[in-house]
Design goal:
heterodimer; A: about 325 residues; alpha/beta; Rossmann fold; five-stranded parallel sheet; two-stranded antiparallel ribbon; 7 strands; about 45% helix; B: about 325 residues; 2 domains; seven-stranded mixed sheet; 12 helices; globular
Chain lengths: ~325, ~325
Amino acid sequence: MALDKEGFLRAYRTMRTIRDFEYRVSDEFGKGNIPGFLHLYAGQEAIATGMCMNLTDEDYIVSTHRGHGHCIAKGADVGAMMKEIMAREGGSCAGKGGSMHIAAIEKGMLGANAIVGGGPPLIVGAALSAKTLGTDRVGVSFTGDGGSNQGTTFEAMNLAVVLQLPAIFLFENNGYGEGTAAGYAVGSKDIASRAKGFGMPALKVDGADIFATYEACGKAVKHCRSGKGPIAIEASITRFRGHFEGDAQAYRGKGEVKRLMKEMDCLAIGSAAAIKKKLVTRAQLNKIDKEIAQLIDDAAVAGLAAPSPAVTELLTDVYSSAY
Amino acid sequence: MPIKTYREAINEAMAQEMRADPTVIVIGEDVAGGAGCDGDRDAYGGVMGVTKGLFPEFGEARVIDTPITESAIMGAAAGAAQTGLRPIAELMFMDFLGVCFDQIYNQAAKFRYMFGGKAQCPMVVRTMAGAGLRGGAQHSQNLTQMVTMVPGLKVVCPTNAYDAKGLLTTAIRDNDCVIFVEDKFLYETSCEVPDESYTIPFGEANFLREGEDVTIVGISNTVNKALAVAERLAAEGISCDVIDPRTTSPLDEEAIIESVEVTGRLVIVDEMTPRCGIAADISSIVAEKAFGALRAPIRKVTAAHSPIPFAPALEDAWMPQEADIEAAVRDVLGYKG
């Protein structure tokens, strides 16, 4: 199904939220307000958005170390996310996860995963739950081109095919696994054909085009819900920022980032297309921009005002009961 | 009371929990066997026959044969546990921990904590350990120490059929990831095991024999060797406390310390390599918490610091034997400061 007016407005709002969230945490990181490592999703917003708009809160996703966008697209509270990333009380993971383990369990976002290739086996399990319990839920594993080379991902794809599980392997090919090109590291022609080799259908889509991404994800979700087993999607995209915040990206070609930020900006491309199709007006989008700017600012201000988690929480939730 | 083998007791615990709770599933390599083959299904029932009979009763939706794919098995179990099932995942030999450890110690063990208490991972990893079957370096290891060190995991080492059933029932009902280490030397051993379902709490040691001269703690099958030694020594008037901790995580430190406070002498036996092992761990706990009670240095009786050799003569030398335990007991008794 194609994105209609209402759908595009929703998509735009989500993509804008992710973009602004990422730029704000980048700023706060630069000011020393965020400890640890940050891997930002800026530039890839259409993929998480296009997929999660096809899911409900009952469906499951697992994510990567670049997980803020998946979390927001799945409906997580940005205030709690901001606090988590800032290591403050009230964070979505009680200050025990941080950026790389951001999660929204109540929304079916089963967690970002700082082990590259760590997520795909887990989504096989979520899909197994759906099949065993007879629900029509699907599980989506967001994985990068880097994660597509891990053995765990191969095993997960194979097992999902063998057990015919409602699992979607969504590969976001942003061209780089850390500082190494996907063109070098992915030995096969592309990631989609590799997934096909495991015995599942695979789609390819321009990850900068929210209309195309939404449609491809819709097809994949429909495939899974109708009991046809797993499916893969390879979405090509670029990342606007480095592998991590602070990465000078010296490995990228001269002018490449600047050029691709223009050529592959899902917000600009989506807006232009939606305006051309007369789905929305610039004024409507500007209004959303303002609302989101306020939302993100409120989240950041509240995050900065919140205290650190109490040290007494150190040993809580290691186990389910007294140990 | 009926007599059952360790194998039967484990099988019965699984079957009873599967009958009681439709979310309990069994997943692993050849847990039934025969998938896609022209011959019998349930041909194996697990490589040691421990899951035999579950497939005919519960069917392929709940007794799931997988490819040889340990990372995906453990990951699938962890993901399923996070989303409403209670999987019992079989890791055929504990040696295979290396190919799937990430899914256990970085994923399953950490969900609850890492996600601020909002996730849980009620899964059991049943695995088989123990040397002496001439299985060589990659089919013989007991790697209990590697899982015991991981916060978030619970680790169970049943040493007889009665304990095996009760502890596995507890494990299946537990809301954390439990590693259930079966000693492959014990499958044919038997004792009285009630037909009805029962649980044994984690973290409560079993006093197998009470004595006043020496405390012997044994993990997995080594505790049975320790018991045999203690029985022999009793004829000489040497009385030993023999303690089976049952679970290495949580560990019943109190039981061990209380015993050492009476005997003043401690011998710890495990069938693991000596560095950073369970014997070393218990030794450090007692040295820290009951130093004043000790009348002799603590003695560890462990395997040798080498891969497990194949040749029977070498493997026998590698493993802690009853003679080693006996020598250690005599050693601590003869200590003159």
